[in-house]
């Protein structure tokens, strides 16, 4: 059974005002003091963000328990400094991000200007184990039509700098400002993948391989495919759902690759439209069907995703949990829906943030 690991980026906020606070360095110092060998929490581009990474897990219930533990520990460490953590993919309140003092991050600020200063968004990256780079590239070529559906499932960034953006996942639109971000063409082989990455670095536009921000890529440090499209999810259960669907997509794609089944060759321009549609509508409208790239109601596209991955989900014993998770999401709404409901009920962006702080820990 393929192992799965999750990286989540969280916002650090004032528990009273809801405003982001640049206390990541202090939180990390406390984490290191409590456990000098800890490798769970890491710094990010901005001082208002904190990242954690789970260990590889094969059991999705255990993955969910670890996500909850990491969120609670992050909340405890932040609370000792008078702040809180919240799983929001963008800040509802206006913020001027503080770039972490680090040679790499300073290079980014100098290279990309205002785009760097506007990138305070939080994502969820899912790592799924693969046996080789060849299998990994076979997977990348075959999961790409389905990645916009994961954007819709995870959508959790409707509010930005004090305004409702009209998008369910505005984070994904902000993230697309990076020059290497977004969907890629079919790679066909590991050799072609690595050659493209080397050519991208050689342009000087990006600093190194770590800045190849494809929607899904071969991980640099691990034998995994890294799926990078999701918003950080407001509720831990949704993060587990995204991770479980990601593993099922990888397993399904690997089986297709081994069987010699050709990938669907949607052009990058059409893939970008599918990503935009998912970011705009979330699960509240239409998505582009991954097979035809024609509009279909979001529930029908989710049904298609479950049908596509059914054998893989049955094989890991996850089918019933995923079906229930999808039903619950369609019934109760995404993180974006919850934020808008809080705003409609309170009229206060501060109350949106503080309400989401509680949901982050549930």
Automatic annotation (TrEMBL):
Q: Which HAMAP family match?
A: Glu_cys_ligase_2
The reply to whether Nucleotide-binding figures as a keyword in the UniProt entry is yes
Which NCBIfam families does the record cross-reference, listed alphabetically? gshA_cyan_rel, PRK13517.1-1
What is the uppermost EC class here?
ligase
Among the record's GO biological process terms, what is one?
Answer: modified amino acid biosynthetic process
State the name under which the record lists this protein: Putative glutamate--cysteine ligase 2
The family note in this entry says:
Belongs to the glutamate--cysteine ligase type 2 family. YbdK subfamily.
For this UniProt record, give its keywords in alphabetical order, as a comma-separated list: ATP-binding, Ligase, Nucleotide-binding
Transmembrane segments annotated in the record for this chain:
none
Which reaction(s) does the protein catalyse, per the Swiss-Prot or TrEMBL entry? L-cysteine + L-glutamate + ATP = gamma-L-glutamyl-L-cysteine + ADP + phosphate + H(+)
């Amino acid at each position: 059974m393929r192992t799965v690991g999750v990286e989540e980026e969280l916002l650090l906020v004032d528990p009273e005002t809801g405003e982001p606070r640049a206390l990541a360095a202090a939180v990390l110092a406390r984490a290191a003091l409590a456990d000098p060998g800890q490798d769970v929490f890491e710094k990010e581009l901005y001082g208002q963000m904190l990242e954690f990474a789970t260990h590889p897990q094969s059991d999705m219930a255990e993955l969910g328990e670890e996500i909850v533990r990491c969120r609670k520990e992050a909340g405890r460490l932040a609370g000792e400094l008078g702040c809180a953590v919240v799983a929001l993919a963008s800040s509802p309140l206006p913020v001027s991000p503080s770039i972490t003092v680090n040679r790499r991050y300073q290079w980014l600020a100098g290279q990309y200007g205002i785009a760097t200063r506007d990138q305070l968004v939080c994502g969820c990256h899912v790592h799924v184990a693969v046996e080789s780079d060849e299998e990994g590239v076979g997977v990348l070529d075959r999961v790409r039509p389905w990645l916009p559906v994961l954007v819709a499932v995870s959508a959790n960034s409707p509010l930005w700098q004090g305004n409702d953006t009209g998008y369910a996942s505005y984070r994904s639109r902000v993230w697309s400002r990076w020059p290497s971000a977004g969907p890629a063409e079919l790679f066909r082989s590991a050799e072609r993948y690595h050659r493209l990455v080397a050519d991208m670095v050689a342009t000087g536009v990006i600093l190194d391989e770590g800045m190849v921000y494809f929607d899904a890529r071969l991980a640099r440090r691990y034998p995994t495919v890294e799926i990078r499209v999701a918003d950080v999810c407001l509720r831990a259960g949704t993060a587990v759902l995204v991770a479980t669907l990601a593993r099922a997509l990888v397993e399904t794609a690997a089986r297709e690759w081994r069987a010699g089944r050709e990938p669907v060759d949607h052009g990058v321009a059409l893939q970008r439209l599918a990503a935009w549609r998912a970011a705009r509508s979330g699960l509240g409208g239409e998505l582009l069907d991954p097979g035809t790239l024609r509009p279909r109601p979001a529930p029908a596209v989710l049904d298609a995703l479950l049908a596509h991955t059914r054998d893989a989900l049955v094989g890991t014993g996850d089918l019933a949990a995923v079906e229930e998770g999808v039903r619950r999401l369609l019934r109760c709404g995404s993180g974006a829906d919850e934020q808008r409901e809080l705003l409609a009920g309170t009229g206060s962006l501060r109350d949106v943030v503080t309400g989401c702080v509680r949901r982050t820990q549930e």
